[in-house]
Design goal:
Elements lengths: L1 H22 L8 H28 L4 H25 L2 H11 L7 H10 L4 H9 L3
Helix pairs in contact: 1-2, 1-3, 1-4, 2-3
């Protein structure tokens, strides 16, 4: 079971980074509450998948070490795929939301505004903003 716990810890530690990369924002801009939720949910899903794999393999009378390594591998693959799929869901909207919340902070305003302007999904926003200027 140590392999399953190690896989869960690895996936849970990388899940907030997956989200920040998929959303196109720096990791420091993602709220701590969101990072905590992502960490806990990715760890729980990975532990569940690994525990289920370990239970099924242990019933098949396989060597204990091979069972633990196989369950850890299944947990790592399944947990990473779920974390990546979760990060990609609504990524344009979530990334834009994180960036717009940073516009209110004086030390992050310029960087956030530059990242919003550089987003390719928001070409219509730049066109609308340009048409309203006098």
């Amino acid at each position: 079971m140590n392999a399953v716990f190690s896989a869960a810890l690895l996936v849970a530690a990388l899940a907030p980074w997956f989200e920040a990369r998929a959303w196109g924002v720096p990791l420091g801009y993602v709220p701590l509450a969101r990072m905590g939720r992502t960490f806990l949910s990715a760890g729980a899903v990975t532990l569940l998948a690994g525990g289920l794999a370990w239970l099924l393999l242990s019933q098949a009378s396989v060597d204990l070490r091979a069972t633990a390594l196989a369950a850890g591998g299944v947990a790592l693959c399944f947990g990473a795929l779920v974390a990546l799929a979760s990060a990609r869901r609504d990524r344009a909207l979530r990334g834009l939301h994180v960036l717009t919340t940073q516009l209110g902070l004086p030390d992050r305003r310029d960087v956030a505004a530059a990242r919003i302007e550089a987003r390719p999904e928001r070409g219509w926003l730049r066109a609308m903003h340009a048409s309203t200027r006098c």
